[in-house]
User: Fold this.
Amino acid sequence: MKPKKCKNTNCGIMFTPERPMQTTHDYLCAIEYTRQLQAKKKLTENKKEKKEFNENDRTVLLKLAQTVFNKYIRLRDGNNCISCDHVGDSRQIHAGHYMSQGGNSALRFNELNCHSQCVQCNNYKSGNLANYRIRLIEKIGIDKVIHLETTKNIKLWMVDELKAIIKTYKAKNKGIMI
Assistant:
């Protein structure tokens, strides 16, 4: 086998491994290397925890707002898929957007644009939009569907807006669950 450099950052000795997956030249360096890996992992976890609990981090707030909003949609619509009428348990139902969030971020938290949808339609049939549109027209009317289809706005959600959305949909979720 080819010579390797010992992975222990305090060592760095060149050695010829006895086994293909050997990363250090002796057991003392292996113990030290394991400690280094554990310390690195703990540091990474601490950074993630700090980021998750930063109440003004827009990315974290956006994820939380989306989670609370999606829960509201599933509670509001039940377990019936708008596209195919499949009835499933809550693990199989998503909050599917009619107009995708990618090019229409202004519609991300629009209740008319989002309805319960089964995993099959939402993920594997790209929203099953033909059937979604038919049933959406029945549910909200053609004028509102056309308004959704013609809205093309990119919106950067601000921290204060996201906090308000989270507060609003948490309250709505409590109201539905009671």
In short: Residues 4-52 form one domain. The helical segments are 27-52, 58-77, 119-124, 129-140, 142-150, 159-177. The radius of gyration is 25 Å.
